[in-house]
Design goal:
7-stranded mixed sheet, 327 residues, binds S-adenosylmethionine, alpha/beta
Amino acid sequence: MRMKEQKGSKLINARLNQFVGQGSTDIPAGYHTSVLLKECMEGLNIRPGGIYVDCTFGGGGHSLAILQNLDENGKLVAFDQDADAEKNVPKDDRVLFIPQNFRHLQRFLRLHRIAKVDGILADLGVSSHQFDEAGRGFSTRFEAELDMRMDQRQVKTAAYILQHFTELQLHKMFEQYGEVTNAKTLARTIVVQRSIAPIRTINEFKAALHTVVKGNPQKYFAQVFQALRIEVNDEFGALKELLQQSALVLNTGGRIAIITFHSLEDRIVKNFFRSGTFDETVIDDIYGHRFENPFKVVTKKPVTPAEKELKENSRSRSAKLRVAELK
Ligand SMILES: C[S@@+](CC[C@H](N)C(=O)[O-])C[C@H]1O[C@@H](n2cnc3c(N)ncnc32)[C@H](O)[C@@H]1O
């Protein structure tokens, strides 16, 4: 796995150099292989002297590409809620790293006296580093505590959810976030099993579920783990807050580019870019003015990885990029 990733990392460095021009692009080997890199840079349409936000710094691949497109007056604000990401931050005066959840975008920009920015990028989900670190509890491949927190300062872990959520909450979580077909039976089984003994580790969890697994066990557990991860990190809640704040912090003509890996996430982004709201029915304000979408959609269809990228990085297979511009 490591070998594969290092190869991927070298490829990314080579690709970066191909289109971003001069300068060093040292991406930490093996941390994460950035997806849709070239497509993101094209989508952001970077203004060299502008201010850009990378909401999901991770291994810093996208950030480095942004920096390569900025001149000495440009600025990059990078967020990541995982303490592990901070060691990848380049020594570059143009970078401001904020070790926080991007749902606090506007608050931290204000704190640093930044009123408006020219572009925002978010590459959602977990990094390869998080997924491949056994102790983080994200992967079904390892035995570990059921943790799954991107931000280790947070109290709620996957084990906590399995122990404390009601049967209905568990049912809805697996149904909505994992699209698990027998979510109701799964929730019932968890409630019965936890009354016998708490479910604390990945192997304990898999053993507790062995009677309810439907179809391919690997696929089944992947869906179950995905649902838990989304819940632990409130991924959809954070995304919605980011989208709402983006309209308030972007300059006119500024772009927002979001990469999603899940159909529900993609739907949230698509609908928000199309309408500028999460409300099903758009209501006129008290003066009778019709709500106007502040965004113009740049990518009518989601941008997906080209054949070459899919071959080089299998983890890019479900990536979808959507871009919008503030009117
Ligand atoms: C897919 S990786 C990003 C990889 C990065 N674009 C690169 O090129 O290396 C996602 C990263 O975003 C972080 N992250 C996810 N959701 C976040 C949130 N709501 N706030 C802050 N960081 C978040 C994760 O900790 C992880 O490091």
